[in-house]
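Dear colleague,

Following up on Tuesday's group meeting, I ran the structure prediction for the two-component complex that the binding team flagged. I've pasted the input sequences exactly as they went in, so you can double-check that nothing got truncated or mislabelled along the way. The structure tokens for the whole assembly follow below. Feel free to forward this to whoever is handling the docking comparison.

Inputs:
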Amino acid sequence: MYRYDQFDHKLVAERVNQFRGQVARRMSGEMTEDEFKPLRLMNGVYLQLHAYMLRVAVPYGTLSSVQMHKLADIATKYDKGYGHFTTRQNLQYNWPALEDLPAILEELAEVEMHAIQTSGNCIRNVTSDQYAGAAADEIDDPRIWSEIIRQWSTFHPEFTFLPRKFKFAVTGCSNDRAAIRVHDIGIELVRGKDGDVAFDIYVGGGQGRTPMIGKLIGEAISREDLLAYLESTLRVYNMSGRRDHLYKSRIKILVHDIGAEEMKRRVEEEFVLVKKQGVLELPQEEVDRIRAYFEAPDFEALDDECAELTAVMASHKRFGAWVNTNTAVHKQAGYAIANISLKPIGGVAGDASDEQMHIVADLAEKYAFSEIRVTHEQNLVLAHVKKADLFALWETLEANGMGTPNLGLITDQIVCPGLDYCALANARSIPISQEITERFADLDRQHNIGELKLKISGCINACGHHHVGHIGILGVDKKGTEYYQVTLGGSADEFTAVGKIVGRAFTEHEIVDAIETIVEVYLGLRESPDERFLDAYRRVGIAPFKEKLYADT
Amino acid sequence: MAQHSNKLAKIQAVTANRLLDGHVVYFTAAGEWSDWVDDVVLADGKEDADALLAKAQPSVETRHIVDPYLFEVDQEDGKMVPKSVREKIRMAGPTIRLDLGKQAVARS
């Protein structure tokens, strides 16, 4: 993992001290709310429905056990004993008091954490593939490049007041687990002409009220040119992005308005100038320095076949199901990637108690080289677990509400906090999610349905990624009453698609039945159990679903 | 300023968040801020509501209050009940965690 150097320590410590002074001035009345609000937002502090919310950055979703223990301790000491893992791979506390925030940030700094780049119109925390460094299919570890982008972007003076927030995602392979095409800039690691690592740059993706799929602007950009190319793209956006209209200020609108070709031309024109200055050429030595932080752990030489695992899987149905759904192939023989579901039936997607956080940290120490990943789908990952340890790992997870074998199934949903917490939301998301998970609680039924990504947002800002759900649910407000609009056919992988609205919205009492109807239509028309929901939808279109849903209207 | 009330709203009251902890508070007849919605002072019609909000405004500086705004309210069996789902949730706490928020605290 990356460790702070003296500059990082100094920078974060200075930021904590500045914020302590700002909070003191606000509390004494020396500073007004209008003056204070942009400062608190720059430190990840929002004011939500019931209390303040602090968003803690987890760069590219990677945490150490020590850091996870600290997050748990803060939840106990300053909050209500839990935290919420988000689609930006961050963690949110829902109840901190203003006066405690400087102390919380100081405690975070002790374990090399902070809340910088979690709010404001700057380059936000970079997200990445949760399987980084473990996936058999990756070209290179995307965390190396995410960390380089983080260092380049943190407090970048030119990009601190962009027209709007700006989100990067990086994937290390063509199999996209980081949803790069719905980010302002999405980066895919590819092989360049010389066989070295190079970068495909997708620009102008995003969700919110105007969902757009990123366009491939830069192809196979070389290592030395990566930062210069990104700087050039940001400059074009900073100069030409709209600042007169909140809803039209993201880079996706600029790319849409001028077209991908024109965007590419402008970026390349700027790129020539940036390159001429030469200061942004990324040297191999610097890449090597960062790479050293992400060296593979000391794996044991093992056979890939693990007879012990096979035997337990055969005798223990639920564990067998967990291995089949929640583990992924590791590049190292004898190891597996273990996904920890934060989606128990009837639970709150992405929430973890302080106790659960401690347990995950302990398990990571015991079985996974003390490293944990947060996924954009609001689960956790232990990236390097010996196959022979999987059963012991799962038993502890299962005993503590984190062993649900539902990864990628209908109960593994992305769900925003919605109107239960969020000041921007129009409708509740979490209770709808809970009802759906309870309706589909039967594990055999879930496995029969197969891969189905259901995503729920409580407003059009789309924090719950509903646009790219195979089934998406959007909460809307109609004269003070919650309604739920359904979209079908979205996807956030390498074949990214924006879902289509199926028809009129459903009430709170109708929506779960509507979801069940959609699932039943799919089961009735699929050509075989291997035809996933999304494949079947792409084959037949929206009509059969629409027909059944609105048959009585 | 936040606008969370229907333009045609008749009976309204003023709510805000407390600076120190962000908790929801309500403006009372005594010109104080209470944790409890039943303590609100009501305004009948737009003119009264605007006057009530103006009366609450100085608290932003003197009482450590953040972003006061009007919300629509009904009276049911002598209890104050906000009309919108949003304000009902602010009044009580998260509907999925009944152990949190004002709903988890007995009024002394």
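Residues 179 and 492 of chain A are 5 Å apart (CA to CA).

Cheers,
M.
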